[in-house]
């Protein structure tokens, strides 16, 4: 596991023993905390929902099935349909987005804020998309060391050789705060970046990444689109296609696989500190340098921010030849991580409490009576455990959206963010960054976001 991750997690878990780690060489989770989060830690509850890695989890069934894509337009003017990760039990009819960090309502959209010393904010759609077109009207953050990203992220890791790997399919739009005239596009297939040896000679190591000129991404709202179909992937800005990737060009003759994103994806929006001093030097350089916690926006508003105005998602139907046995959920059939590894079924996607897992959706009873749980286990990725308390975990200290509707985007909105340390925000956005950096030390163009990976 990446040292960066551990540094941050060490802070995040001061009050509790570190949970078991998973993925990236750490192996699978144990049976009592079977779900591997996208940050490489084992737990139950929210660990088994979004971002749960089926291969690094105890079994392929440990993660809760993924809710299928459903087209929709989402105005982000209110946070009514945004749930805190510590309150969300997997029901996509109850919330459109799940948040970690501190989103704030502002004008007719939502600010993704990053208060001083925090790891920023992530919004994840509560469903998955297996091909479709997603557009977002948004404005980036500004200043060195701040990265705004808009990406799909998969909840999948693959078994490569004999060790667990945390590789993922991923498609991104990314914005680096010190270069407001450029948007970056990226894709990964199981985190593979280097396409030089693919059958098509025009694919170079740079092929995964693209730069696209735009007018001031901080001052101007642009619509960024990722149009993902089984055979072709397109990136659009304001309705103009600026980049196209054909699946046929990603063929690896050695394996017979197309190194093309092909499994159900989450849609995430995140603002995170690529320039955090504890990140790898290559990451910091890519982010434009070490983050400036005394930036003009932090001085004025007490946080850096990106602005998300609206999101439009158009689902494409199941790909030809897909295994369709229902219409509710995407379910993993095997651990190959390919388009054939998925079936559409009617398996339930909702847990009854944050003590539940994919193999016991009702463990812990209902959220209302789940405070009978006394076990000390992690149930919300990145947060401390809530030993002996309600498994609902709402006292976990993160994402109380108080102050969120003050609407001014000024310091008045920051009450929930003040004192927001990594320990409180909890989640970590450095993992895949670190991974990327290992893949391409010192190279700037390719690093994706979110780690989350915001990921
Ligand atoms: C938000 O307000 C801006 C400026 O008034 C406007 O251009 C935009 O269309 C609005 N967006 C939505 C989703 O209402
Ligand atoms: C990509 O792979 C080729 C051939 O395996 C290798 O020579 C090259 O150094 C690699 N490039 C990067 C950026 O890893
Ligand atoms: C093609 O697959 C082989 C076997 O897994 C791998 O070693 C090689 O790096 C792949 N080629 C590229 C360009 O990723
Ligand atoms: C998976 O990809 C292969 C290779 O392109 C294609 O022939 C097949 O139809 C795809 N299956 C699904 C379910 O997408
Ligand atoms: C689910 O967990 C509860 C304990 O919370 C237990 O009583 C029940 O037997 C479990 N169900 C299964 C199918 O394991
Ligand atoms: C994108 O722009 C950055 C910064 O100007 C540069 O370092 C990088 O090499 C460019 N990437 C590509 C693929 O052109």
From TrEMBL:
Coiled coil: none annotated. It comes from the Eukaryota. Residues 380-426 are annotated as: Disordered. Residues 382-420 have a biased composition (Low complexity). Residues 86-295 form the GH16 domain. It comes from Neolecta irregularis (strain DAH-3). This is Putative glycosidase. The keyword Signal applies. Residues 1-17 form the signal peptide. Keywords: Glycosidase, Hydrolase, Signal. GO terms for cellular component: fungal-type cell wall. The lineage of its organism: Eukaryota, Fungi, Dikarya, Ascomycota, Taphrinomycotina. GO terms for biological process: carbohydrate metabolic process; fungal-type cell wall organization. The keyword Signal applies.
């Amino acid at each position: 596991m990446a040292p960066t991750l551990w540094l941050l997690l060490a802070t995040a878990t001061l009050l509790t023993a570190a949970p078991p780690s998973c993925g990236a060489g750490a192996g699978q989770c144990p049976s009592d905390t079977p779900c591997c989060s996208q940050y490489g830690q084992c737990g139950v509850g929210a660990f088994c929902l979004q971002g749960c890695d089926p291969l690094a989890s105890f079994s392929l069934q440990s993660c809760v099935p993924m809710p299928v894509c459903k087209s929709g337009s989402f105005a982000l003017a209110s946070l009514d349909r945004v749930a805190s990760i510590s309150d969300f039990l997997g029901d996509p009819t109850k919330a459109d987005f799940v948040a970690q960090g501190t989103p704030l309502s502002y004008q007719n959209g939502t600010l993704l804020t990053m208060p001083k010393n925090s790891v920023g904010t992530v919004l994840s759609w509560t469903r998955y998309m297996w091909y479709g077109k997603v557009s977002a009207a948004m404005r980036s953050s500004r200043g060195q060391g701040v990265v705004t990203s808009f990406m799909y992220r998969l909840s999948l890791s693959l078994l490569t050789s004999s060790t667990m790997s945390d590789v993922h399919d991923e498609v991104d739009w990314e914005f680096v705060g010190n270069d407001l005239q450029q948007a970056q596009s990226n894709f990964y297939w199981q985190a593979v970046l280097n396409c030089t040896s693919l059958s098509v000679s025009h694919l170079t190591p740079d092929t995964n990444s693209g730069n696209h000129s735009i007018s001031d991404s901080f001052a101007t709202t642009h619509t960024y689109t990722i149009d993902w179909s089984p055979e072709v992937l397109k990136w659009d800005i304001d309705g103009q296609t600026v980049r196209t990737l054909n699946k046929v060009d990603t063929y690896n003759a050695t394996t017979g696989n197309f190194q093309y994103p092909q499994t159900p994806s989450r849609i995430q929006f995140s603002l995170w500190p690529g320039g955090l001093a504890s990140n790898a030097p290559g990451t910091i350089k890519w982010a434009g340098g070490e983050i400036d916690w005394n930036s003009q926006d932090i001085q004025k508003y007490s946080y850096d921010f990106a602005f998300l105005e609206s999101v439009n998602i158009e689902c494409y139907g199941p790909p030809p030849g897909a295994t369709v046995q229902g219409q509710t959920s995407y379910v993993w059939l095997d651990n190959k991580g390919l388009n054939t590894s998925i079936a559409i079924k009617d398996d339930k996607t909702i847990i009854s409490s944050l003590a539940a897992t994919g193999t016991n959706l009702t463990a812990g009873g209902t959220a209302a009576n789940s405070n009978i749980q006394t076990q000390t286990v992690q149930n919300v990725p990145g947060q401390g455990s809530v030993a002996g308390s309600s498994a609902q975990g709402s006292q976990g200290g993160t994402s109380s959206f108080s102050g969120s509707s003050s609407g001014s985007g000024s310091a008045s909105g920051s009450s929930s963010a003040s004192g927001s340390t990594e320990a409180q925000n909890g989640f970590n956005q450095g993992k895949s960054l670190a991974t990327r950096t290992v893949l391409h030390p010192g190279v700037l163009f390719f690093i994706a976001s979110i780690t989350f990976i915001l990921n």
